[in-house]
Amino acid sequence: MVPEEILIVNDCSLLLKMMGGLLENKGYQVSLTDSPEEALVFLSSRNIILAVIKLNGCQADRLAVMHMVKELNSGARLIVVGDEGHLPAETFEVEADDYVILPCRIAEVWRRLTSCLEAPVSQPEVPSDGQMHPVNQRVFHNLGLMFHDMRGLLTSINEGMRLLDRRMDGRCGEETEAIFQKTFQKTRALLSLSEDFLRKFQNRERPAAAEDRVDLREDVIEPVVSEFGEELQESCITLENRTTLLPPVGQCIKGDRSALKSVFRNLLHNAITHGGSGCTISIDVDEDPGYFHLQVQNSGAPIPPKRQREMFTAPKAAQGNGRGMGLGLHLGREVLRSQGGDIQCEFRPQGSNFIMTLPRA
Q1: Which segments of the chain are extended strands (E)?
Q2: How many angstroms separate the CA atoms of 48 and 65, rounded?
Q3: What is the pTM of this model?
């Protein structure tokens, strides 16, 4: 089950920051942000049960977030916080559960928050025909169209490269042919990704994909590891895949097969890139009664402390350094959390250990 969270869209207010800390002390999972853009990401990817939004005048971006709270989750509660005389008329056009007008006593703000959380909420209606929410449906169909076009282009590229592969026959030199083969392999992998999504699109009438049963080793680990065979060999990297020692059955997890492969692919790619030539990468699985923990370790250089602090945050465009380990980790964590899992990282003197927590089926 996807964990419930509270979202606080702040504006550097110490009051709401303190409220977030108090809610965490009571056992709630809280996401605190000053960015309306990041707030929309949280609303669309997490199970938000309460959104607290701070307004200071007619801020179009924050008003847009207010409108999306109920649109993305009709069962979510919404509290609007604003200074006296600074709440625009548009604020009251949104279906909010409460308004907190500042200045206000801290105890009163706390009482209003907890009362809203404790009040019974009617469960959103689930369409009997299994159709998705209209917002998700629009996004899903747009993605389907995009991947359909991508597959057509990639199929043409793949066939052209297949023809070139037959005709090269060593005529361009070993170095050029090695680059060609690597590019050819990545093209096939990209084509496979697009076909994975389109198969999911064609089966969209099934129950929610988050409840799919996926074999961890057969459906996720083995196909992704096979994609990196040549790259591992060229980089003289030793791969210790300890999951081959697992029983042939019994590692069934819940989730979207394509998404899980993408998250694991990103972790393995990061391990290769940042571990560097000659490092050792190990893949292992631990388990407990409710989850499997898929670990990807590398023996390369340690991750700098500054990078550790921002490991899972969405990078700004200007911060890109071409080395990766930015947006992929942020999106991977969001995907896993939406399916009841998570990603953590253990920082070590030599290398790092990324852990995917995956719910049992």
Answers
A1: 4-9, 29-33, 47-55, 77-83, 98-102, 213-215, 238-241, 252-254, 280-287, 291-298, 342-347, 352-359
A2: 13
A3: 0.59
Q: Are 267 and 296 in contact (CB under 8 A)?
A: yes
Integer angstrom CA distances of residue 93 from 36, 86, 87, 339:
19, 15, 12, 33
Question: pLDDT tens digits, residue range 188-217?
Answer: 888 887 887 777 776 664 444 445 789 999
Name all domains of the chain by residue range, CATH numbers in brackets. Answer: 4-118 (3.40.50.2300), 129-206 (no CATH), 208-361 (3.30.565.10)
Structural tokens at position 217: 């080793």
Asked whether the beta carbons of 80 and 87 are under 8 A apart, the reply is yes
Question: Tell me: the pLDDT tens digits for 289-336?
Answer: 889 999 999 998 888 888 887 888 766 544 444 445 567 888 888 888
CA–CA distances in Å: residue 256 to residues 136, 137, 187, 201, 301: 15, 17, 23, 12, 32
Helical packing angle, 327-338 and 36-45, nearest 10°: 40
CB distance 176 to 254 below 8 Å: no
Q: How far apart are CA 18 and CA 334, in angstroms?
A: 25
